[in-house]
Every structure is written in C-alpha cells, then in structure tokens.
Specification:
283 residues; alpha/beta; 11 helices; binds S-adenosylmethionine
C-alpha cells in the first residue's frame, strides 16, 4: 500500500458496488448510489464500458473475476443486514472504511454514531467527494489513522471512541495485514468495547482442497502487489480462523462461505468466489 496515495483497492470495490447498482437496478442488493462518485477517470471509463447490456455483463464480469464480483457484493449485503439489525442499539465502527457509504445509505438505522477509520489519503479523498452531502444527524466521525504505526488501543483512546458494546466492520482488509495485526485487532475490539461487541470481517483462504485452485492462489499475493501495490499477506482456513478468534477472547465464532451468505440473504442466482469467507466474531 502506498501511504500517501488513496487506496486503489478501495476504489476497485467501489467500482464493483457501482456496477452492482447499475446491473440490478431496483433488485440491487446494495443500491449504493454513492459508489460511482469515487471513481477516478480510469475506473469511470471501465464503469461506463461494463455497464452496457446488464444481463450479459453481470455474468461476464463475475466469471471474469472468478466470482470476486459476487463475493464482494454479497459480503457487503451480509454486513448491511447486521448494521440494520444492530446499529439502532449499538455504535458502528468501520476499520479501513474506504469508500463505504453505509453512514449515508443506512443512516435511518444508525442511531449511535459511526466512526470511520482509514489512511488520511483515502479518507480525505472520500470527504472531498461527499462534501455536499447531508451527513447523518446521529454523528459521523472521520478518523485518520495508520494501523501499522499505532496500536488500535492507542487509536481508540486518542480519538475517544465510546467504550460500549459496538458493531465493528473490518471489510476487505484482513488479507492485507499480518496475523499479528489480525489477532491484535480482534483482541483490542473485544477488550476495548467489551461483551456484546460483534466484529464482522472477511478473510481469504490461502489454500483450499483443490490443488489446481491452490496453484492459482499462490499467484494472488504477487498479482495484487503488481497491480495495486497492496499485497495479500494473511490467509487462513476455517478451523485456523476459529482458533485465532477464540484465542483472542471471542465467545462465539461463525463463518459463512459465499454460498452460505446467499442462503442467509435468500438469494439463488449468484456465483461467488469460493476462496474467501465472512467471519462473525461475538465477544
Ligand atoms: C480493500 S479496501 C476496503 C475498503 C472498504 N472497507 C470497503 O470494503 O469498501 C482496504 C481499505 O483499508 C485501508 N487501509 C489499508 N491499510 C491501512 C492502514 N495501515 N491504516 C489505515 N487504513 C488502511 C485502505 O486505505 C482501504 O480504504
């Protein structure tokens, strides 16, 4: 990740959400009308080219991305469901928020404030593109941080994040950090916010039971580094992830594959990436 440059992967996932909105219209899972605003010229050109012939292109884009397109939108919708359920009662913390627009899209459910943490470069760009938006009445707090330079505990203390049970979303980030950071993030969230806190994050499976897929997976970190300067570093299997979460003080750990998320969201027609999963960690 280039420290002084807005995150490119955050823009890539914004492109996926913008396309999902354009392909599915009224049936869109996310209806993220803000996502397209964050696209720079290159991504906007891609968006315009890929928006034509929605029925055909939605399938083509998903197959072309080996199911990453559907996985990314499913994980976002799955997390949205938790925000709708819990944000009326709990504060919401977004770690590595990128161009997440929940603070605006789901404002009606968020009754105890949102704390968005990200690199200054990404966050300032986001604020610029949202400068004319009416921000939610219950409070949106932008917090500029570098998770690699300060401990999460110090960051929360310095910024005065409330020490009450919280819903924490850590979306699309765990694969770019070390196992040590994954452990310290989970432990700190559990200890700082206390019992009743829920941490939602997706994680990458470094290996699967399919040897051919494993061969392709071995190239993923290098490909991400080459294209985005953001290298995949952390990966874990389901049992490994459960062990880590429990060692970090979780009371309950659940994990959902793309297909299981589809079942939870009562969907049948998506083909999500199978080498990643969604973790729900309850403290
Ligand atoms: C793949 S993007 C995901 C963005 C957002 N959560 C989403 O799903 O749309 C990863 C985000 O983590 C942020 N990030 C990565 N490393 C970070 C660090 N060391 N400190 C703060 N933010 C970081 C990036 O700026 C980027 O916004």
């Amino acid at each position: 990740m280039l420290e002084n440059t807005p995150s490119r992967t955050a823009e890539l996932v914004a492109l996926m959400r913008a396309l999902e909105n354009s392909y599915y219209g009224e049936k869109s899972l996310l209806k993220d009308k803000y996502a397209a605003r964050f696209l720079s010229d290159f991504y906007m050109t891609l968006f315009n080219r890929l928006s034509v012939l929605p029925d055909f292109m939605a399938f083509f884009v998903n197959i072309g991305s080996i199911g990453v397109f559907d996985f990314i939108n499913l994980r976002h919708a799955f997390m949205d469901a938790y925000v709708k359920k819990y944000a009326p009662d709990l504060p919401l913390v977004l770690l590595g928020a990128g161009y997440d627009s929940r603070a605006l899209r789901l404002a009606e459910y968020i009754k105890h404030g949102v704390w968005e943490f990200d690199f200054p470069a990404t966050q300032r760009r986001k604020k610029f593109y949202l400068r004319n938006e009416q921000l939610p009445a219950t409070g949106l707090h932008y917090c500029e941080v570098d998770f690699m330079k300060e401990s999460l505990q110090e960051i929360f203390e310095k910024l005065g994040t409330p020490r009450t049970p919280t819903i924490v979303i850590w979306e699309g980030v765990s694969m770019y950090v070390s196992e040590e950071i994954v452990r310290s993030t989970l432990t700190t969230c559990g200890k700082f916010f206390g019992p009743g806190t829920i941490v939602l994050f997706d994680y990458w499976h470094r290996t699967t039971e399919q040897p051919v897929r494993n061969l392709a997976m071995a190239f993923t970190p290098f490909l991400m580094e080459l294209v985005y300067n953001e290298r995949f570093t952390f990966g874990a299997g389901l049992d490994e992830m459960r062990k880590i979460a429990l060692e970090c003080g979780a009371k309950k750990f659940s994990s959902f594959s793309g297909k299981q998320m589809m079942a939870k969201l009562s969907l049948t027609s998506r083909l999500p990436f199978t080498s990643a999963a969604m973790a729900v960690v309850e403290f």
